[in-house]
Write a structure and sequence with these properties.
CATH class: Alpha Beta
Number of strands: 10
Strand order of the largest sheet: 5-6-4-7-3-8-9-10
Strand content: 15-25%
CATH superfamily: P-loop containing nucleotide triphosphate hydrolases
Bound molecules: adenosine-5'-diphosphate, magnesium ion
CATH topology: Rossmann fold
CATH architecture: 3-Layer(aba) Sandwich
């Protein structure tokens, strides 16, 4: 069967053709600077929205402190990346099925160990991740709060960085702080903004404009707007039931579905990257953690 894929530049890539490199899955890192703005909810529901658009999606729960994705979905991954690296658990067993056809990999402390892998563990990791190459079209990385070394490494290594911001001054300040660091270390030339918990389109646009004006004045990173998600009681109801809100017919779900379309159909990255997709992600991450 011929599978036509799209690379980061949204150009069709025929994976079966030997002339075209296998780009592997597109890696999206979801971050915010501030905690509690909705990163994990977005990661999970965006993943489901993309599977509804016939994409195969794996979520990497890279919040090294808290196992957020598990809690949100009421699933308990029996193994994490650490078990794969150190105990030889096959990567297929680390992949945990979630609702709507998504699959979850819990990072555990596996990522922190990338810097000090033996050559045997390194080849085991690459072998394992090569298998993921064949199993996914998108890898969504849910990061923890703050601008730690690990969060920045996940930003640097991803194809695209999605910055979640709530329409309030503290969240704006933290999102700007994050974009500033991306700019200072030249991690990316583009950042993709998602306004969450917005009460109106006007409020979302105002939030985007504030960030754009600041970034335009002081930074060279381009701030792109991907879309917004309304403040919606449906979200906390779904969280309490440990179910994704995308499965309900609510305003927040409509926002996420639009964003999934935008990600799939719009050309996102304008930068030429030498290392793309999952293989690029892994080699960049290994170097960064070193
Ligand atoms: N669009 C929204 N509308 C209403 N509440 C939301 C929305 N998005 C997130 N929340 C609330 O914010 C809380 C924190 O969300 P979460 O995804 O865990 O944030 P983060 O991962 O950034 O820490 C959730 O428990 C949820 O109740
Ligand atoms: Mg979270």
């Amino acid at each position: 069967m011929r599978i036509i894929k799209h690379n980061t530049f949204n150009e069709p890539v025929d994976r079966d053709s030997e002339a075209v490199p296998a780009w592997g899955p597109r890696v999206l890192t979801i971050t915010s600077g501030k905690g509690g703005v909705g990163k994990t909810n977005l990661s999970v529901n965006l993943a489901i929205a993309l599977t509804q658009l016939k994409q195969r999606v794996i979520i990497f729960d890279a919040d090294l402190g808290l196992a957020n994705v598990d809690v949100l979905l009421g699933v308990t991954p029996p193994f994490n990346l650490y078990d794969h690296l150190y105990k030889g658990i096959p990567i297929e067993d680390v992949l945990t099925p979630g609702p709507g056809g998504i699959r979850i990999i819990s990072g555990g402390s596996g990522f922190l160990e990338l810097a000090c892998l033996t050559s045997q563990q390194h080849s085991r990791l690459l072998e394992g991740l090569n298998k993921l190459n064949e199993l996914a079209d998108f890898i969504i990385i849910d990061t923890g709060a703050g601008i730690s070394k690990e969060v920045l490494a996940f930003c640097a290594a991803a194809d695209e960085v999605l910055v979640v911001v709530a329409p309030e001054p503290t969240s704006l300040a933290d999102a700007y702080g994050l974009i500033k660091v991306i700019d200072r270390f030249k991690l990316h030339r583009d950042a993709y903004l998602i306004v969450n918990q917005s009460h109106s389109e006007g409020e979302s646009l105002d939030t985007v404009n504030r960030l754009r004006v600041l970034a335009g004045k002081y930074l060279s990173v381009k701030v792109n707007y991907l879309g917004d998600i309304r403040f919606d009681p449906c979200v906390s109801q779904a969280v309490k039931k440990q179910q994704p809100f995308l499965l309900y017919n609510c305003a927040a779900a409509a926002g996420v579905k639009k964003i999934a379309h935008a990600i799939l159909h719009k050309t996102m990255a304008t930068e030429q990257q030498t290392e793309q997709g999952l293989p690029g992600f892994i080699s960049k991450l290994g170097r960064l953690f070193r």
